[in-house]
Amino acid sequence: MSNFAFNNPAFQQQDPRNVATYPGAPQAAQGAQTASFQHAGMDAAANAQLEGMYAAPSAGSLETDRMSVEDTVWKTAGLFGILLVTAVVGWVWTLGGIDLNSLASVSLVPWMVGALGGFVLAMVITFTSRKKVRPALIFAYAAFEGLFIGGISAFFEVMWPGIVLQATLATVAVVGVTLALFASGKVRASKKMTKIVMIAMLGYLVFSVLNLILMWTGVLPQGQAFGLYSMEIAGIPLGLIIGVLVVFMAAYSLVLDFDQIQQGVRNGAPRQFGWLGAFGIMVTVVWLYVEILRIIAIVRGNN
């Protein structure tokens, strides 16, 4: 499992032989109902009642208080709505009333505040969600991520005009294609591929931390705006090569997100767990956008 947001039993595959693995799972309820009918029998009144139940509209997540794909989609849309609002705030905070041709006057405060706040909240949500889901913390995370996205986007837009639109369209394209392939059944998560991607993600994390340390300590030349990413191999920026692989990892992480949300629905997880599903998707999409933003910046910086 690549996305730490789904580190909860509600999203794990359950043992069908043990109906008590996840309390309230539909399988247990269905088994209990079947056993009841077998012992009590079905008379005419029961048949009429069943016919009425089948004729009635299907109960939604509000009526059942169970997680559903549709409800998770609405929750995801709501979180991204919060992110977009605070992204505008971060953008205006960064660029408001300044000369867009003067990089020195760009404020990095929204970027830094959003990144730090988002990281802290992500850790809190991850380590507390096994006991209780707190939507308020997830709302706050979306708000801080919006500040981060708005700030970093404004910074890159000053350096490379039009880059934000390019990165946004590319991100939407990757998410859309990944969702379409998953919905059609053409792409599915596998244990072997998940292990490979997990190892690759761990290696990339080590590389990114090392790159930041080398940049902050001044070991790398000042002309390398992205540190090790700016190095070239056979005339091709290292950041471009790594970036393509990272986009693939992020896309596969989305597949895992979708798969684990479906697993949560199959497990009959409580409706509040839909917020964790939405949170997990947001974490992956933000990561994907930032990586695409950097890839485009590296390519345009070398032209």
Plain-language structure description:
By secondary structure, the protein is mainly alpha-helical. It has one domain. 68% of the residues lie in helices and 1% in strands. It is built from 10 helices and 2 strands. It has helices spanning 26-40, 44-55, 61-64, 69-95, 109-128, 135-159, 163-183, 191-216, 238-266, 274-301, and strands at 232-233, 236-237. It has a two-stranded antiparallel ribbon with strand order 1-2. A hairpin with a 2-residue loop joins β1 and β2. α4 (69-95) crosses α6 (135-159). The longest helix is centred in the C-terminal third of the chain and has 29 residues, at 238-266.
What keyword list fits this structure?
303 residues, mainly alpha, two-stranded antiparallel sheet, 10 helices, 2 strands
